[in-house]
Each structure stands twice: as C-alpha cells, then as structure tokens.
Amino acid sequence: MLAERRCPRPILPPALVTAPRFVAVLLAAFGYYFAAFGALPALATWMQTGLGLASPAVSLVLVAQLVVFVAVSGLVSRHLHALHPAWTLGVGTILVGVGAVTATAVAGRPDWPVLLPFLVLSGVGAGVVSPVLPAVAIATAPPHHAGAAGGAANAVRQLGLTLGVAVCGTLTRTSTAPRMSLACAACALVAITTGALAVRLLRRSDSS
C-alpha cells in the first residue's frame, strides 16, 4: 500500500481499499479461508499421529467438508446473489467460525467424529461465501478497477489460507488434542471476528 500511494496510477487506489464495502469483502475473504481450510493439514496430522488413523481414513473424514462445500455451492449459488452481502459474506464467515468452535471439543473428547460438525458447518459457510465473493468484490469497485478488485479478493483469500496453515501448524507442533483444540479456537476467533466486522461494515455502508 505504501508503494501504491506513491504510484501515479495505482492498481488499487487508496480510496477503494478504504471503502467500507470493499474492506468487508477482504475481511470475509481472509477470515473464511483461514478458518475453513487453514486447519486441515494440522487436523490430518493429528488424526494420523494422535489417533492412529491411516491416511485413507483421514482423507475420508476430511472429504466430508469438500462434499458439503460442493453441494451447497452447486445447489444454492444461483440464489445467493439475490441476498444482501452481509448475509452471504458476513454470516457465511461467522458460520465457519461457529463450526470451528465445535471442533474445540476435541480437547475433552479426542476422536474424529467430534470434527464432523466443524467439517459440515465450515463446508456450508464456505459454500455460501465462495460463489458470491468475486461478484461482490467487483461490484464494490468502479468498472475500470473491477478486475483488480476481484484479484485482490482472491489474493487475500489465499493469504488467509497461507496464514491459517502457518498458525495452526505452529499451534499444533506437538500434535496433541489440547493443541488441536487451541488451533480450532484460533480459527473460530478469526472467522467470527472478521465475519462480524464484515456484517457491520456492509450494513453501515447501506445506511451512509
């Protein structure tokens, strides 16, 4: 952003990056990808080393999220664009966070079925956010910056994934149930916070 401020023709003008609706898009993009997918490598490692599950069994457990994600995206995506972005982006991200909250139960009951509510809820939340995110990002920008806005949203989404994997991997370096619970709590905090901020910014921009 410092370089962009000095550039006579910035790719993302400062006015766009500080616009409430665009900031809300970036927050949702970061939060839902961080929480929904950032913990998956740590979960896979924990189920193998902590629970003794074989790799094929771990894949079968984690694929539940993908199945739900694809089903929700395919069945309801065409209806999501008619909803207010606060519901799709904000509440969808919060739903991912609520799913992560349920996964913290592994501290008291270290077993793979405890993870199923997280996988289902995060799949639903991600399935709601993903189809809408690029369109809302583009709609928040002037036509001549629409492509850059869409690219920025996707870049922030990948940043969320990268940091999610790094943070969850660091928190679960000993791969124990309490550590896994802590990583899920971090995911919940990120998703619920960014989702709530996105809702607030999107609703406030309507009233301004």
From TrEMBL:
Could you tell me which InterPro entries the record lists for this protein? Answer: MFS, MFS_dom, MFS_trans_sf
Topology class, membrane: Multi-pass membrane protein
UniProt KW Transcription regulation keyword: no
Transmembrane parts of this sequence? 22-44, 51-75, 87-107, 114-133, 180-202
> Which Gene3D superfamilies does its entry note?
MFS general substrate transporter like domains
Cited SUPFAM superfamilies: MFS general substrate transporter
Q: Where in the cell is it found?
A: Cell membrane
Any keyword Transmembrane helix? Answer: yes
Keywords recorded for this protein, A-Z: Antibiotic resistance, Membrane, Transmembrane, Transmembrane helix
Q: Which residues form the Major facilitator superfamily (MFS) profile domain?
A: 17-208
* PANTHER family per the UniProt record, alphabetical: EXPORT PROTEIN, MAJOR FACILITATOR SUPERFAMILY MULTIDRUG TRANSPORTER MFSC
Tell me the protein's name.
MFS transporter
